[in-house]
Amino acid sequence: MLVPLLLGCAPAKLADDGDAGSSGSSSGSAAQTDDAGTSATTTGEGTTASSADASSESSTGEAPPVCGNGVVEGGEQCDGEPGCEDCARTCSFGTPIDLLLTAQSWTTSTTVPVALTDGSGDLLVTSGAGLHRVAPDGTELWVQSESTSTWRVLTMTAADADSVWLGWITDDDGWTARYTRNAVADGSELESFDVGDGAESSGDAVFATPDALYVASSVTTPELGKFARVEHRDAVGTAVQWTADLLDDGRDAYDSRFVLDLALGSDGTLFAAGAARLDADAIDNEIAALAPDGTLRWRRSFDTSAQYGGARRPWPLTDGGVVTIVREQHNDFGTVGNTPGFFTWLARLDAEGEIAWQVDPTDAIDEYRVQLTAVQPLDDRFVVAGALVDDNGNAAAWLGYLDADGALTCSTAVVHPNGEPAAIDAIFATADGGLAVQGFTDDDQPGSAATSRWYAPVYPY
Question: Is the CB of residue 388 less than 8 Å from the CB of residue 398?
């Protein structure tokens, strides 16, 4: 279980609509005292009301909101529910629930949990080479795990109500990108296919709709080097509708490009976020937009030159644009405590791929660095999450809200009670339409071998 560390930018307590005793008064009113000694007010119409009655009405004759009665009234944002303080929304987590997985998550998860829509409240999560179904209390119901350490889950997405797609990298006979569709009932494999035609490859990203499947794989050939191959397939993965190879754009002489995440916009634009390796020691974050027929609409570089990194978690917006996390890590940045020099920020791009704004939440938090790992639009704002790291390398799981212009409006963080660093690696939608986060704690730092996984509901701010 996690315990609160800090809470910033909580809304102030709402003021009452009117002052007690002034309700219903008018010019020419006079104060009186009745036989019981209760103060009363005589109105211009000659009627009287005790102060107790008057205090329950506003200046318009309507009763003011009563905080704590469980009914959202007047200017209240909430009343008596979790994440509600003084009838105003707070930026907070619900009670974290440990995921009791039999197979250890050997590293920070790169997959977003899938909340099942069958009314069970169960989740599908991954760890290393395993697929797990867990109950709402975190208890593991089953696990399907590859027996060999040469299999590794890289990505997961819901296919339909009854199955999920997984992207793998395998080494049964050379590194191979493999995609499998697995049943949510028991984890059994329903479909599978490989990408790369025998070339070295890995199954990096997958996105599914009820009618189609999109996959992105890293493929390496002697002629082209390492490049990202994006495919649009039918719903069961057998028929390829189109293939788009993201190749050299004239500046990455090292010939290396990969996609980390895919997302599909409402107009059919497919966003592919990842990186291009410029040389042996430099990676540039980038994101590409592909038209419904697979042609390249635009590709945006962020002019970074890091040893490690890559754009993550693209989210299409209703205006045709997209937000994405940009990550930059340099060995010569040194460390923040035990944590490598890893800088992240959020970028918003318009429908033409032009950068509207880029923000680093760290700018609004003194003495801390935020390492972003997840983002999700929510109405007219953005929910972002990751790890909050101080100068001593101490880390806490961090959740924040940004307005439409990228300004931080609220944030909160939690740490593990035994002092182990914690972080959030995914935000996901729950079956009831809410949001939850997936997190981990470890004995060293974010990014090292995880010893505990957990999830928690998010109370909207």
Answer: yes
Residues of the chain with pLDDT under 50: 1-58, 105-108, 252-253, 333-340, 444-450
Question: Per-residue DSSP letters for 352-380?
Answer: TS-EEEEE-GGGGSTTEEEEEEEEEEETT
Domains identified in the chain and CATH numbers: 98-372 (2.130.10.10)
What is the DSSP secondary-structure string of 154-201?
Answer: EEEEEEETTEEEEEEEE-SSSSEEEEEEEETTT--EEEEEEESTTSEE
* Contacts for 92 with CB less than 8 Å, ≥ 6 apart: 4, 7, 82, 83, 412, 459, 461
Structure-token pair, residue 169? 């990298």
Contact 287, 271 (CB under 8 A): yes
In this structure, what DSSP letter does residue 100 have? B
Residue that the structure tokens 């996959």 belong to: 215
pLDDT tens-digit readout, 258-283: 888 999 999 999 999 998 877 767 78
Residue 228 tokens read as: 């990202």
The string of pLDDT tens digits covering residues 50-86 is 333 434 444 556 778 899 898 988 888 888 877 787 8
Residue 181's identity, in one-letter code, is R
CB 206 within 8 A of CB 240: no
Tokens of 155: 């990505």
